[in-house]
Amino acid sequence: MSQQNVLEKQQWDKWLENRDTNAADQLVKMYMPLVDYHVQRISAGLPSSITHEELKSFGLMGLFDALSKFDPSRDFKFNTYASFRVKGAILDGLRKQDWLPRSVREKTKRIEATKATLEQKHLRKITLSEVATALEMSEVDVLKTMQENTIANLIFIDDGGNDSENEQSFQIEDTETLNPEQHIMKSELIQELSEALVHLTKNEQLVINLFYEQGLTFTEIGKIIELSTSRISQIHSKAIYKLRHILEKNA
Fold it and tell me: Average pLDDT over the chain, rounded to whole?
């Protein structure tokens, strides 16, 4: 056992046996990278008005909650348990705030209405450029608005993943075993996405792969391909818009 693991075990022993506050502080420091990871992932696409510090404060509450309720006798690791709690606490914090400005909601409605009008007029799928031109907006502004709205909708979907009232109801879902219908749907989706990915630029394909397949943050991806975090965010937004457009067209 490494020295780091020995120190971690000592702190856990102190915390579990005596609820030692100093041990709790040390454990929080050890698991802060888990909070930072979820902050980075969730913050992608959120308005700049939502700071990392706000998200981190939500995540810390989730981490404290995980420390106080974790039962080492149960058959899963603390990292797994805490990950659910931290992510759930951040999303709960966002749900309780009306963080999406009214101006963004109004712009979203205008974009969607314009897109629908243009599609009815031309009887085809409308490009990002056409929507931006019709609204006298930049393509970047249209992308950012739609991305913020999409993230907001995802956040407000109640997935039941953070049951803070009843710790005993926490379960790890078996995501490895798929039923026959899920196998078919997964295979079809993978096929559709594989065909759609070839229409992306090399950088767009790389960002999608590193973000979703490798689990890297925008900052980490930026270091790999030598671009700023904001530029990676823009590439990600444009790639998602293209993929959604292609999949809707083929639906």
Answer: 76
